[in-house]
Structures are given as structure tokens and as C-alpha cells.
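CORE FACILITY INTAKE
Project code: CF-77B
Contact: R.S. (postdoc)
Sample description: multi-component assembly, three entities in total
Requested service: structural model of the whole complex
Turnaround: standard
Below are the sequence entries exactly as provided by the requester. Do not edit them.
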Amino acid sequence: MQRIVVCVKSELDATGPIFLIEPTVKINTKDLVPILNPADHAALALVRNCIAQEDGQITVLTVGPPSADKVLRTCLATGADSAVRVWDDSFMEEKMDAKNISLLLSKAIKKLDAELIVCGSESLCETSGYVGPALAELLDAVQICKVDFMQCDDGDGSMVFHRKHNYGNREVISSSLPAVVTVDFGAATPPVVSMKESIKAKKMPITLFDLAELACESSEINADANANILQYIPPRPRTKKLNKAPDKPMTKQQKMQMMLGGGASKKNSSVVEGNPKQAAKEFIDFLIAQRIL
Amino acid sequence: MEHEIWVWAEYLDDEIRESSIEMLGEARKLADKMKCKVCAFLIGECASKYASNVISYGADIVNIFEDQKFSDFGVETYLYPFSSKREPNKAYTIFVALTPDGLALAPRLAAKFQCGYAANAVTTILQPDGSLKTTVPVYMGKAHCVYRFEMDDTTVIAMKPGSVGVTGADEKRTGETVMFDTHGIPKSKTQRKGYIKADPNTVAMDETEDVVAAGSGFKIQTDIELLRNVADILGAVVGSSKPVVDKGWIPRHRLIGISSGRRISPRICLCVGISGSSQFIEGMKESRTIIAINKDKGATLMKMADLALVGDLYEILPEIESQLKAR
Amino acid sequence: MSEERFDCIIVGGGLAGLTVAYLLANEGLEVLLLEKGNYSGSKNMTGGRLYGNSLERIIPGFADIAPVERRVVKERLSIMKDTVMQMVEYDASGVFVQEQEGESYTVLRGKFDKWLSEQAEDQGAMLVCGIRVDDLIIRDGKVCGVVANDEEMESDVVLLADGVNSLLTQKLGYKNKLGTNQVAVGVKEIIDLGADVINQRFNLSDGEGIAWMFVDSNEVCDGFLYTNKDSLSVGVTLKVENIHKAESSVPQMLEDFKKLPEIAPLVSGGRLVEYSAHLIPEGGMDMVPKLYGDGVLVAGDAAALCANLGFTLRGMDLAVESGRLAAEAILAAKEEGEFSEQSLSGYQTAIEKSAAISCVKGAEICRKAVTDADSMKDPLDAFNSALQSAQIGGKAVGDNG
């Protein structure tokens, strides 16, 4: 019976309304609703799809205040067998950055003695993809990212994973355990919530690990988390990041235009208004300059 | 404290990856300002043959770790070159492109070195006081977070392929290459057992390299064949805007736009006959290059595109097809 | 036979459903509330303003702990007669309609209902979200439970609070399919401006709010504007049967409404945060269904307990009140040990005596009276006559009491 931990995060739904008009030190997230990170839910669904309940028991784990119980219950209703939440009264939500969360998760995972650790590849809000690899480092476990299939190998304690590689290809990898595996949103679809499973999930106990339970000193938590964030600014508009092609010789018309118009116009993008033959040629030249053809 | 700029130079299909060239360019810019050296790491079974190439793209020193143990990517083995070269009295800025392997290595490096990490970095600018200001997208790109990293600390800067563009190589550049003893490499805990090539019919929109998108400019379903012919030559996947999917002309898993739940950032996104609703644009604006074909010069997509071809798609597409075939 | 059952299953996690859940759980009953949205409030919408006193009876001092937006201190009424619009402003404390005396508050349903759902859960109610009830379990004419996605759950009694288009009430035969003359469609924008800008533009202090109704004497398109903490709720409503009479689409009418000289400067510079639409019961007594049966009760919008009185709207508070009365009826039936139509009949009696029915009955007359009268010159006088002619209790008392 495999011991599997799926790490999940209760976070604000960044697909909701959030705008920044001017630089600010604290982002206004008042219109955002907390949800289960979709990539984490996909991770749970993938594990449950690939590993039957009789072969592997899944514990979902999160670092968060009591309000995070809601996402744990969603997980309990959609495939998880048990749930653990890590939190201590001394914690401050703003100080829970990816590093601190990874540390706390790793201690909980050690306590749970898991062989397979799975989590979403990135969160909606931060999209840094840091936690999975950090867990592998802290647990000295094998790290495989962007997995969309997993299977236990017969008997020898290893597992087979399919890892997303270039251009939609997949690498088939055999790995020893313990392993930390990350899963992209979309790799698996969680089941539709069932009324009975939800009711059952509501009644299940959620274990709380505080600092004492984890045998962790509060000094191990970095109090300087997020110290190097200066501010938040509105997103920059998309800049043209074209490969710099060698300068094309000017056509007669362009030369005329330049002489009459008093200087070459500086264009960021090219607009081609000629006949279809010209358009097609420009297209192909462009692809060549971008090293695509 | 002495500072070094590191770059992981990856190679694929017998050449240095374009994304690594981008990283070398960024590293070179920073190194020139900071007056320090760019050390590229070449890791692989036949790493050494790319050394001169890497130098021409901006490296001062190339650390070569050539061994059969590196033939398949494994995080644990690929960490070794970096951790073995790291010196306690030096600080490093490490540029890694977020390729499938870079995505696994970059954050792990930051975790191993217990240092700052900027994922999907947009800009990295040296400040007058010597610190590094880096901007990363957060909240699904609706805001950018500005980080400040001290130059006395090590920082890993991970950038999406295509986020900076490449400049040409300078063949006259010189640099030093160093071959390293690979006896200490830990044995990989993983083994590649096989490789499954993507099926072009089912490959996900966000995993394909090139995309062409059909819009309402197409009058009947069979007209999309014009676009498909071009896509086949380019090796691109055909997607579309929502109205076309709603008509049933393109399968739903090929929808481009925010209602698909995903954002795509392909190498090229060729949009044909699409004016560009905000939903569509949100779903593909991270594309490296955007090319649009439309009769309407003022359409939103046309103004946004890196290359806008004004004209009738019914005339331009066949012309593109025949010119491509003629090459 | 299912292994588990509840005393009461509530379908719908809006204000009526949550009120019943709160009260029954408080009395120690095993309550299951099933809400189709991902959280209570996600699928609910109001203009809007909540009159506080029905919830005050249940959670005294609720406004101090609940996420209400602003306390309404000023009211405005604009009457659009042909192309002319006239406006009058008056003190909010000056008017009350039957049993509604007391403070009222602007609310945002996402936040408010979510808060109320947490209170209900604290009392011990089990709330399950993301579940849509498709059918009822009926044995020998008695409602014994619900069916959701082919799963069954049994209970002694079921409370239907599943909103204006309650399919379950229709399935029971308690009401017919919605007629176009029974519902209005309301579309609303929430426009973010910041508290200071709102205070400035409406001459308010922090926490103080304004409720502004726009009444169309042609009865085609009404409008509304409410001040929230940092934003404005601006919207229009029109009866579905009148949509073809309107000159433009409903979304277009909202755009035109925002461009009116009275409104444009107030919303200028604001940013659209949310756009929503919802159906509103406006069918009067004809729309009120059979309210109870063997093992079942109907409350809130599902019972069509909404009233547009011209100068104000009653809806949310009537939902809470109907929830309170339904809970009382269920508790009384539990005492008796059975949940038959007979033992639940106390609900009907209580509803008929409450403000809910008299408001629903008199709404149309009241509204017409408000538009016909010279409400601009002496609004309080006009409201008094309107309430009287509609036979709705209450008074417009003015500053001098």
C-alpha cells in the first residue's frame, strides 16, 4: 500500500477581477474568492486516476489557516483518503512565502512518511513553480516535473512516469522512490462533485499539525519572507521581442518616402499592404528572419 | 564580493537552443554593466562541440561537463555541475530558460542554493546602487511584482523562451573553455525508458510549437482547408476563435481564448480572419510572434501583430502555400 | 434505503434557505443545505438593499458583524415621465413599509450570503455547494427527500428555496412555468470608484449610503443606483413581456441609463468590476405558488415573495422572513411528530399575516400610485397615499416624526 501525499493550496482565484492602475505595495484582492488551486486539483485527480485506492492511500496536505479546510474537504470528496493541515497560531499569512511553505510541507511529509509526493506545477497567483522542486530538495527525493501519467512498476518499488517534453512529446521515465512529481492544470480532470461524497467529506476529521507536532522551531521559519518585493506594478504591454534581422535594403518607394517625409519612420511592427504575392513573400521573409524557416 | 553570471546553455537537435542564446544575450548585457564574467555551462554527452558557438553568443568561460551520464536529463545529475562549481565567497546571477528541462532545474537550483528566485522574469535591470531589479508576472499576468536582489546574494533568473529575442553571434569573440572531471557525478535515480512522440491530431494547444488560428473571416467550413494546407507545411496546429468553435467547424479542444481555460504562448501564432476580441487576445497574447491576415487594417489583432498582412485571406493563403511549396 | 437521513433538507443557499438552516440547526436539528453555486452568494444577485429588521430578529446586531456595505441614510426617487425625469431626495428614516421599520443596508450578495452561510455552519448546519438538486423523492404523495445527480438523500421535510425559477416547485405542480408577465430581468454593473469618491459625489460620510430608485411611468424600464463601500451598483430592470416594446436590447438600455445626465457624472472614472443579470419575480399574487404540502415548504423567491412598490423594493428581507416562518412551522411540526400537509399548514397562515403577502398583493397598485401622484412635491405624502390605496401597512413620517 503506497503512501501518497498530494500538496494543495487554498489561494485566491486570480481569474477573477483584479486590476492594478498604479504601482502599489499591497495588491487589492478584495474581489477575489479563495479556491482550490486548479493545478493541485488536477494533481489529485491524476493520482486517483492512475492509482487505485487499494494500491495507494492519498493524504492531502496544505499549509493554511482554518479557512483552508474548505479546499481539503473538496479534496476529500474527490479522491483523497485523509487530510492534514499545517498551521500555528504564531504564523502570519503574509509571511508564508513559497520557501516557508516548502519547509513546513517537507516536515509534514516526513512525519507522514510518504513515498510519493505530488503537487500542482504552479499556483494561479504566483506561478513560480517553486514548491515542487523545493520539496524534492528538502526531502532528497527524485524530482520529475510536468507529469501526466504514473504507474507503479511491478514489485520493485519503482514507478513509471510520463513527463511532458518538447512540443507535446512525452518522456517515459522509470524512477525510484521517494519522488516529488508536479502536475500541470489540465493533465487530469477532477470528478464532478457528488452529494454523498461531499457529505462524507464534511464529516471526516482534518488533522492539524502545528509547530510542536512538526518538531519545528519558529526560528526555522524565515521571518523575512517577501522582503525583497519592492512593489507591484500594472503589467507592461506586450513588447515586440523579434529576433533582429539584418537590415533590408530600402525599396525605391521607401527611399522616396524617406526623402519627402524627412526621415525614415521607426516602426515597431510591419504592416504589409501590397498584393497577395508581396504579402506572402513578406510572410516567408519574416519567418526566415525569425529563424523559423 | 566577486560576482559571476552563469548561464545554462542547452542544446537540442545538434544546435544550441534558441532560448539559451537569449539567456546568453541577457547575461552578456548584465555582465558588461557589472564588469564581470559570463560563465556558460554545457552539460551533456557531446557537450564540448558547442563550446565555440556558446562563446560567440556571449560567454567568457564555458564550463564543459561531458559524460554519458548526462545523455538524458535528470535534475539530480544536472545539478551537479552547478553545485560543484559554486564557491562560498562568490555571488552568482544564474540565467536559465524555462524549457521543459529548465523548468525543472531552475527552481531546484534556487532551492539548493537557498537563494532568490524570479520565475518568468520579464525584465532584469541593474540599478545604480548595484542591486538587481527584476519584474515577474503574478495573478495570471494581471500585475507585475518587482523584486530587488542584492548583488552580494545569488539569484536564479528564469525566463520564458522567446521573452527577449536573440541577437546575432559575434564570431570574433574569444573565451576560455574548461573541461571538468565528471567522476563525482551521482548516478541518476531516473532512467529514460522510452519516448512518445506527440500525435498532431490530439496534441494540446498549449504544447504545440506553432499555431495557426481560423476566424470568422472564413465563410464556410471547407474554406478552412486553405489554412490547413499552410499549417501542414509549417507543421503547425490549427485552432480557432470561439465563434468558429461554436459553429462546430473546429473541435472544442482547439479553442484559443480565455474561455478555453488556458493561455498559449507558441512560437508563432498566425491569426487569419480574426479581428481580435479581448477573450481571444487574452488567450494568446503571450505568443512569441503574432502574424495576422485581415482585410481590416484597423482590427485589434492587426494593430497588435508583429507582422500584419492586409488583404483577402482567400488570396493570400493560397499564395503563401504555393511560395512555401516552391522553396 | 439510504443509510443516512436528515431532519430537513434545504434546496438553495440564498437568504431564505440560509435562514431556515440557521434556525433549525440552532435548535439541534440535522440540516443539510444544498446550493448549486460554488459558494452561497455566487449565484445570487440583488440591486440592492436589505431591510434589516427580519434578520435582526434572528441575529440581533447582525449589521455590526456582517459584511454590509453602507447603511442607507438618504433615499432618492426619480420618476421618468415620457422624456422628463424629476428627482426628489428624502431622509431614509422617514418611510417604512409594513414591518420593515429600522435600518436598511446596501449589500453585495457574494460577500453577504457567504457570511450568512458561515453563521449557519457555525450553528451546525451542513452546507454542501456545487450540487444541483434535480428532483424530489415522493412516496404516496409525500416529499421524502431529494435527488441530485442520481444520488438520493432522505429527510423528514424538504424546504424549497431554489429561487425565482424554482423547477422543483413546478415539478410538484405547485406552480406553472414562468410566464413572461411574471418576471422582470435585472442587469447590473458594479462600478469601482473608491470610498472617498463616493462620499464626495453623494455627500456621505464613511459607512453612510444612498438608495436611488428610478421609476418609469411607462412601465417599460426601471433603474436603480446603490452605493456600496467602494463601488456603485447601477442597473435597470424590465418586465420580460415588455422587452419587445423596448427600443434597444437590455444591455444597451443599461448603457443608455449610465449615460443619463443624472448618472454619468456619478459613475465617471469608475471601473467595471462585475456585470450580472438575474430574473426578478414580479407576478404579484398570481405568481405565488402553493406554499406547502406533505413534507415540503416553499420560501423566498421560489415563493415569489418579492414586491416592487415604486419607491422601494422588498425581496431579500421577505425571503429572510419567510425563512423564519418556515423554520417555525417545521419546528412546530417536529413537536407534533409528523410533517404532513396538515401539520405544516401553520406556515401558510403565518405568511398570509405577514408583510410578505400584503406587499405582494398591493405592489402593483402602490407603484402606480407613486408614479401618478405628485411624488416630487411632497414625497412622504404621496407614499402614504400609495401605501393606503394598496392596503399595505406602514407610514411615511418625515423628519418631524
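Facility notes:
- Chain C has a mean pLDDT of 93.
- Chain C has 13 helices and 21 strands.
Invoice: internal transfer
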